[in-house]
Design goal:
Blueprint lengths: L6 H13 L5 H5 L8 E4 L16 E4 L1 H8 L7
Antiparallel strand pairs: 1-2
Length: about 80
């Protein structure tokens, strides 16, 4: 998807990582501290394109949590 290569996404992604101190927000909610480097859309882009850059709809997560949410191939569960 071209959106993920856009200047707007790259800047928003960077801001989310800074805001979340590079920590997985799902792990934090479960009492664990783990670094994350994936910026996750809580409401998926394909479900609501208008929320694609909404920082309230974005959170940093780790690869493990991302796999639990989307599976190995990145599909939504």
């Amino acid at each position: 998807m071209a959106f993920y290569h856009s200047k707007e996404w790259k800047e928003t992604r960077k801001l989310v990582l800074i805001r979340d101190h590079g920590l997985c927000q799902i792990c934090l909610r479960n009492g664990h501290i783990k670094k994350g480097n994936i910026v996750h859309h809580i409401v998926e882009v394909r479900q609501n394109f208008d929320k694609r850059l909404d920082m309230n709809n974005l959170e940093t997560i780790c690869q493990s949590c991302h796999t639990k949410l989307h599976g190995e191939k990145g599909t939504y569960k």
